Model the fold of this input.
Amino acid sequence: MSNKEKHWQKTKGHMVITMCLWAFFSMVIFLFGAEINGMSFLGYPLAYYMTAQGSLLAFVIIIFWFANKQEKIDEEFGFGEKED
Amino acid sequence: MFKGGFIQNLPKIYGLYTGGFLVFILMMAIAEQAGVTAKTIGILFVAFTVAIYALIGYLSRTVQVDAYYLAGRQVPTVFNGMATAADWMSGASFVALAGGVYFGGYSYMAFLVGWTGGYVLVSTLLAPYLRKFGCYTVPDFIGTRYGGNAVRFCAVLVLVLASFTYVTAQINATGTIAARALGIPFEAGVWVGLVSILLCSMLGGMRAVTWTQVAQYIVLIVAYLIPVFWISNKIGGGVFPHLMLGDEVQRITELEGQFGLVKNSAADVKAAGVPGGLKSIAVAHAGVGAGGMAVWKYISLAICMMVGTASLPHILMRYFTTPSVKSARKSVAWSLFFIFLLYSSAPMLATLSKISLIDPNLPTGIIGKSIADVQSIEWVKQWSAQKQVFIADFNGDGILQLNEWFMRTGVVVLATPEVAGLPYVISGLVAAGGMAAAMSTADGLVLAISNALSHDVYYNMIDPKADVRKRLIVARVLLIVVGAAGAYIASMRITSILGAVAWAFDFAMSGLFFPLVLGVWWKRATREGAIAGMLSGLAAGTMYLIWVYPKFMGNPAWLGIDHLRFGLIGAPVCLIVMVVVSLMTKAPDAATQRMVDEVRVPSGKSILGRAH
Done:
């Protein structure tokens, strides 16, 4: 496999993991909205908290993590960008 | 003080700007104490901020193609994040979101998840690759990747349809706010709004829109957060509302049990003469609906908004302006961070607004008091006169019950500062924030449409030999035409704000999501597949919308897929047709395959040059 193919393989893997995290916070937990709303976080009912704030925060963290990790993958295969 | 170029000095320039804006707010507060009328303060707020945006728009004028279309590809990561956030958060987000949460509860908050989660798709699947491509517009990518004018034209078609449904709602919102703040009729307000929008974008295209959007973000976020923090502290909700309103949410649930959540019958509401569009609280604040259908309704709405987010051209094109691929990726993260600041505050504002009104222990509470007393409160008088709030004494006992208090959704943001007893200067600030939010989104949308028409239709299809001067003149003329068309439709008042906004997402996801994603992630995707996919997805989605929307054919929704979710019909049709047709046609040639390989590598030159 060429360097480019290996890089794309790893990039795809990283994308799939990120998509799984995304699906968890955007869909999976809300499958159980009624069930988890009895639990409490910071005094808020849990499902209410997740839809009002928790999942939103999770997305912010996921994207920062995704971008940093992808930069490392690019550098590992010599595709890092020099400027800024 | 300012050494080096404009870009190096950005933090200083916007730091000074923010400081200047805060000083302006203080001056207005002093003016209010000195006896300047509320109306004058409102006018000053809107006029001053719009004048600043226009000045930025003028200073950013340009005669270069790459500056006009891509802001010269030198917008730093964090600033592009702010500009995207302003581009994203519309007048509807600013004015109607907290009200939607206030009345719609948990099931409405699927919008919050949808309008933020979509950015994960943008950053992983699209933004970095489109940046590497180096296109000027979204159809520019589709047209080059798949090759040919037919496919380019289909992409322009979807773009115009999605963006145009969105832009009328935005111009509508600028009109409403301008009309209220300046005390002029709505129809005139719409044209004032349009002129302000064009002042920001006409001379400098993307470059001007970028720098005004950063300025607008600062105004809108200050205007949203100050009331939230202030009210929370004032009513003892906690210094930091986002972490500390758990008790208030519980208290609301308790009060709902005490007062009872009654859904008024349509006949009662009509008989009492409640003005159209006003609602009473009938949905639990923090409760979750049980049952499979409730879960599906929540998740399906979130999916439509997320996939729609990742297909909206006015957002994607913001990431064409960063200096590099990696900064495009980081910039998506910053965008979402800046959006998060406002979106996570909307439910807090809804909570504060609701508890201020319904808790009898608070001096601002009105539920359970005598109706005569409530009607003599100053803000109730004012907003009743404008048909924004209404009291209907259904049981005739002279006491205000929870189901007898009606409000328009926008009132939650626009009136809560007054309800909680904040000085008027805050209401003026909120009006300026709403104006900034509506203007920045309208700017981005009008530019997305006119750029697609000028670059893709005019330059690529009609007159490829046109020189730079001619191209930029055409681009500006189209900008005015598109804006005027939007303002004209908005002035006819045929769309309610939110219906149209959700539709834009569904149109975009029906026609653009899979052609964009597969263009990067599937080398086998062919031109014929893309054309067939876009047209059939768009047609299927649109036909379903006509079939299901109550004002058109009004058939019962299939599997709960109503008019807000018609993208769930269009996008799968688009995917299936695109894959089947691609596999039936000849694989893309070697040059195209090499191009896709090149897009997947972040380093090196972009596929399309700086000027093309």
Summary: The mean pLDDT of chain B is 90. Residues 424-462 of chain B form the longest helix (39 residues). The two ends of chain B are 37 Å apart (CA to CA). Strands of chain B lie at 389-391, 405-407.
